[in-house]
Here is the input.
Amino acid sequence: MVVARRALMMVMALGVIVTAAPPSPRVISLIPAVTEMLFAIGAGSDVSGVSRFDRFPAEVSSRPTVGGLLDPDTERILALRPTLVVIYDTQVDLSNRLAAAGIRTWPYRHGSVASIYDTIRGLGNALGRTADAEALTRRMQQELTDVQGALRGQAAVPTLFVIGRDVGALQGLDVAGGEGFLNEIVELAGGVNVFRDVARAAVDAPIEQVLARRPEAILELWVNRQFDASTRQREIAVWNALPAVPAVRNHRIFEINDERLAIPGPRLPDGVRLFASLLHPDAVR
Here is the structure.
């Protein structure tokens, strides 16, 4: 006691203020795109929980999972004692529960490519990694600029970007509309979205409309499904029911199962380059 008292008196005499170090951030992300952003700005060590849909980077496999958009595990989230939880802005009930527990939330909404940069910068500011976030943003912008440079002088290809369809049939056709980053992907890759006039992110497209809009290329994005060569050929052959469509007639149907085209995060420029290489194989590789 005497030693401790003397130490305290010495500190007071020297005018030294002793403060505890701020706690390390403990971030939970329910959005795969945001999880990728966190690791890409060097904040992977701050990530203490992820959604069950997270696959990239490989380090996420060592993090506890806390459910997803429709079934977040609130008890698991609370048990991990987060300082910040990134949630979809539609998860109002979860937001209210976390607020009642004194936990800060970050509501996230899918948007444009510009909003991806805004989210990266916002996360960087929140976690003390402003410079890393800015560097990542600049790198992504430069990669997209490089693709645009390679496409200079190329005519835009009228493109149907299919993001959902019944396996083995031209039913349940879900395509990119004129809003959001999926439409931007088509444009950045040197295409023109044949459903760009529909002011929605996704459109339930009747076959009659596909026939009327005459796409010259069709790219189908299958996420979380592995294709072997025979399966790919069977799905391409489904489109033979529409021989009047230029993309079908000219054999420009592409079956892709690459998530870089589906997740609006740091790998998006890679996805755009892949898309561009299919639409303009002589210009982009």
User: Anything to note?
Assistant: The first helix runs from residue 2 to 14. Residues 1-5, 7-21 have pLDDT under 50 and may be disordered. The chain has two domains: 27-109, 155-279. DSSP finds eleven helices and ten strands in the chain.
